Amino acid sequence: MYTGSYFKRRDFSVDSLRQQDGLSLLSGDEAVALAALDCGVQLGTGYPGTPSTEILERFADLGGIAQWAPNEKVALEVGIGVAFAGARALVTMKHVGLNVAADPLFTVANIRLDGALVIVSADDPGMASSQNEQDNRRYAQAAGVVMLEPSDSQEAYEFTVRAIEIAERWQVPVLLRMTTRVCHSKTIVRRGTVAIAPPRPAHFEHDFPSRVMIPAYARPAHLRLRKKLAEIAAWNEASGPNQIVAGPSSLGIITSGVAFQYVREAAPEASVLKVGMTYPLPIEVMRTFAESVDLCFVIEEGDPYLVEGARMAGIAVEAQAESFRFGELSVSRVRRILDGDQSPQPKRVPGKPPALCPGCPHRTAYTILKELDCIVAGDIGCYSLGVLPPFEAMDSLVCMGAAIGVGLGLRHSLPLDDAKRVVSVLGDSTFVHSGITGLVEMVYNPPASGHVLIILDNGTTAMTGMQEHPGTGRTLIHDKTGKVIFEDLARALGVPNVHVIDPAQQPEEFKRLIQASLEKSELSVVIARRDCLLAARSIREYESREEERCHEQQND
Amino acid sequence: MSSKTTNVVIAGLGGQGVLKASDILADVIFHAGLDVKKSEVHGMSQRGGSVCSDVRFGERVFSPMVPEGEADFLVVIAPDQVEVNRAALRQGGILIQPALIDEPSLSNKKSINVALLGVLSRHLPFSFEAWSAALQRNLPARLHEANLRAFDLGRS
User: Fold this and answer.
1) SS3 A42
2) Whether pTM exceeds 0.90
3) Do B43 and A264 touch (CB under 8 A)?
4) According to a count of CB atoms within 10 Å of the terminal CB, is the N or C end of chain B lower?
5) In chain B, how many domains are there?
6) Is residue B25 one of the residues assigned to a domain?
7) Which residues, at least 6 apart from A183, have a Cβ–Cβ distance to it below 8 Å?
8) Over the stretch B20-74, which tens digit does the pLDDT of each residue have?
9) Residue B56 belongs to what domain range?
10) Nearest CA distance, A278 vs chain B (angstrom)
11) CB–CB of A237/A282 below 8 Å?
12) In order of start, what are the domains of chain A with their CATH numbers?
């Protein structure tokens, strides 16, 4: 049972939304959190990832129950369980997180849910803080999951409510696709604009054929999914969250998400169809709209998804040039699309790139790896900055946790002298997210040359803004909870050499340790442990509050 | 106010209070009852790199980002970030930078962001009381006095 938190990170309440005549100025992330609160979402869960992180933090601030899961797959599975109990779940992640959660996603699409399961996919066109630019509208289509796409914070609020409604009406999961600019831009939100029935009490009834996806039950489940999607498509045509702005000109533009805002500004005279539910598409609405104008453009951020859908259905539309598929759109890029201007865009003066903070413990680690001429299979986090000067000491970055598998593959293939230079480097939160199975692989299929795994443990998920994880032993709201101790885990798995060291305090010892580990043809795990400079003060505060709490309990 | 959208870009380096300054500005506008949008990119840029935040207001704002070359005001907190962001400014737009502030007069150097808001405020139609209220809503009580003084330094 949830017993409430001992203290909250910030002293927020709904009152802190600074309402003015029922209005608040909120980011899209905050608007989703507020909608989740207003809908009585039982549990919010997810894994931190820019630009989605603030949703759960804000939900917790507002009084909702929110948790960080070890990764997005686990978060989605927890959300599925919440929905099996008839309650409402919100699961949040960045776009690449949905890759991790894709396994449960594709099957839960077929499963009848009693409660609501809303999954936020926060895409990052332009890659402000990501390793790829994938467009997760493709997932909705591939998995057969309904998708809504808000274009500002008001819609982020309303579409979250509508997603819950749709989820419960058709007993399906719903994807809410946000993008960086919708997540992080603040726009004015009016609360309570859409009504929703209160959540039903949690309950459980056996329903084997609906929820147990053995082939015999999964075959009819797939048929049911397609039937439901056809019903939802018909509903979307008649009364879906799509909007037409009628304009005086003969130009029509079909768009979705934040691109709608750029279109309205770049071509105020055009008629615009904003598709709010982008899977299944309201094809007949699109057809009628396209036929009502002389020239119909499709303008969309990311992949040619709407345009392909329209053309497959035989709707005559103009597409933007391929070059506009890359990066974010903007008012000026939309003007260029409409003008047919494909000349190279003026280059922006480069700003100052991000760098590891002065005094960051990762600096010592990378300096030494460079001195030792290591081949470094790296990973995702602040420490990805080790690829940039002055370090230039990271040789690969693929996805969360890949450091270990990639390092092992290199060790298995390179000539012995080179194989012995290979180290895998990843951070604490990344290790918990997807590194543990890599460590199992390392023990199970050890390379002949051995291997060295370095966990840069700075006691927080630093890159996304200091979130807790199972290795910190504190929950999302910083209360004490069970803690995964990496050195114990590595020893329990049978790694013969496990060391914990503070690289900033003992740089020479750290160097000698790495050197000695590289020389052995054995498996080594080195945990380089020192709190992130930016998080250290908060960590001390959480720890001392926890101590006070223990004393109070002893005195009671 | 005319129906035209007013565009402000605030720029600097991670840790200089760019986002705090744009929060305060957006809050003043929001409480004045105008449509307002504010946009920035969080994430990697917070590791000491360039940061900029756009605030737009008027009767009805569409894009949350200021279109290139359309900023009416460019507020730059780090002198070395002026050239990086100059292209944001429209012709005839106003550049507001630390050189306009007598920095030794600041009781806390960190409040340069708020001092530059004070300079910006001379050009915008909001009262001192409205700014002062927004500062108090957006900053912890212990920082009110220093920041109100910094704001005043820029505004007068």
Assistant:
1) coil
2) yes
3) no
4) C
5) 1
6) yes
7) A27, A28, A29, A51, A52, A54, A55, A122
8) 999 999 999 999 999 999 998 765 555 678 899 999 999 999 999 999 999 999 9
9) 6-155
10) 21
11) yes
12) 14-239 (3.40.50.970), 243-339 (3.40.50.920), 361-543 (3.40.50.970)
